[in-house]
Amino acid sequence: MVTDPGPWKKDGHRLIMTPSCEVTPKSITPAFYRELDQEYGGFAGHSLIAVNDFEEDWSTWEMHPKGDEVVCLISGEIDFVFSVSGQEEVHHVSEPGTMIVVPKGIWHTARTKTKASLIFVTPGEGTLNAEKPGA
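The chain above was modelled as a monomer; its predicted structure follows.
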């Protein structure tokens, strides 16, 4: 059981969900992602819960090999772009409360239409980032 239920602000913390669905808040530091791997055994079976704001297109693509990612739009408008068999699929998200599922193993990026705020539930183990899908 979490010892301090919060509240936790998006600019200072992320939440870590363990394989047994227990949640631990973690402060954001410059070494945040490296610490996740060290403190949580390579992040195996864990999910990262975060709220992020975007004013610009993502500069990279990413892929989560260990599970589906769930994203919920809080405000704004954004396109999620999936790379499927070398082709781009665009999934437009513009209504607050709308959720999208990024399937396991699919390279994806996002293009903003307006400033957007989103909630992410990400299976972090083995996440890859690249300038181009699959690079």
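Helices lie at 32-39.
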